[in-house]
Amino acid sequence: MKVNVTTLESNSAGELELADAIFGLEPRPDLLHRMVRYQLLKRMAGTHHAQDRSEVTVTGKKMYRQKGTGGARHGDKSVPQWRGGGKAFGPKPRSHAIDMPKKVRALALRHALSAKAKAGEIVVLDKATLDDGKTRVLRGQFEKLSLDNALIIDGAEIEIGFARAARNLPNIDVLPVQGINVYDILRRKKLVLTKAAIAALEARFAGAKTGQGAEARS
C-alpha cells in the first residue's frame, strides 16, 4: 500500500510503499488483547504484601482459659478473626508476568501496525528533526498536521532537539524504533513513523509473510 510522505512543515515529500506483510494484515482483536495484557502484567510491580498470623506483632499469650467460659476456644490474638490479627490468604510479593511466545509477540506488533494502517491513522514523516528544540515551534507544526494525540517512532536514535521539544507536549510520546510496542501504538490516536523507522521495521520483519497461519497458531 502507498502512503504520502510529509514533512514537519506540512509539505509533501513524495510517496512510500508500505510492505503488506507488516501493514497489510487483517487485524485480530484477540491477538492485540493478548499482547496488551502481556505487557501490562509484565510491568506490574507485584510488591503488594499483607501480614499473616506469623508476622503480626501481638502477644502470644492465650486469650483466656480453654474451658468454662461459655465461649468459643481461642489461642492468641494473631488469628484472622480478631482485630489486629493476621490476614488469611493475603497478597504476597510475586511476579504477575505471563508467558507469550516470541513469534506471537512479533505477529501482534504487525497486527497493531496493520490496524493503524487500516484505520487510516498512520502518518509518515520524512524525518523528525528540529533545529532550535522549542516546544512552541513543534506545537505549531503538530497543529498543522492535526497531531494532538500521537505516538512518534523515529529511527535507532531520536534527534535531541526534537525529543526536548516533544517532551513538554501532552499526549505525545516519542520512542526509538527499538521501543515500539503494541500498547503504546493502541493507546494513541495517531501513529507517526519516520522513513528511518519504516526502513528499520522492514529490516526487522524481512522474512515475514502476509499469511496468518502457522505464526498465529504458535
Explain briefly what this protein structure is.
The chain is an alpha/beta fold and 218 residues long. The chain is built from seven helices and six strands. It has two domains: 2-44 and 97-204, Ribosomal Protein L4, Chain: A (3-Layer(aba) Sandwich), CATH 3.40.1370; 47-95, no CATH class.
Molecular structure report:
By secondary structure, the chain is of the alpha/beta class. The protein has two domains: 2-44 and 97-204, Ribosomal protein L4/L1 (Ribosomal Protein L4, Chain: A, 3-Layer(aba) Sandwich); 47-95, no CATH class. 31% of the residues lie in helices and 14% in strands. The protein contains seven helices and six strands, in the order ββαααβαβαβαβα. A six-stranded mixed beta sheet has the order 2-1-3-6-4-5. Helix 2 crosses helix 3 and helix 4 crosses helix 5. The protein starts with a strand and ends in a 14-residue tail after the last helix. Residues 214-218 have low confidence and may be disordered.
Features of the shown structure:
218 residues; alpha/beta; Ribosomal Protein L4, Chain: A; 2 domains; 6-stranded mixed β-sheet; 6 strands; disordered C terminus
Secondary structure elements and pairings:
Layout: E1 2-6, E2 12-17, H1 20-23, H2 29-42, H3 102-118, E3 122-125, H4 135-144, E4 150-154, H5 160-166, E5 172-176, H6 182-187, E6 190-194, H7 195-204
Parallel strand pairs: 1-3, 3-6, 4-5, 4-6
Antiparallel strand pairs: 1-2
Helix pairs in contact: 2-3, 4-5
CATH topology of the largest domain: Ribosomal Protein L4, Chain: A
Task: Please tally the helical runs, counting DSSP H or I stretches of 4 or more residues.
Answer: 7
Strand order of the largest sheet: 2-1-3-6-4-5
* CATH homology-level superfamily of the largest domain: Ribosomal protein L4/L1
Quote the distance from N terminus to C terminus.
27 Å
Total strand count, please?
A: 6
Helix and strand element order: EEHHHEHEHEHEH
Mean pLDDT: 92
The Rg value, from CA coordinates, equals 27 Å
Q: How many distinct folded domains?
A: 2
Biggest sheet, in brief? Answer: 6 strands, mixed
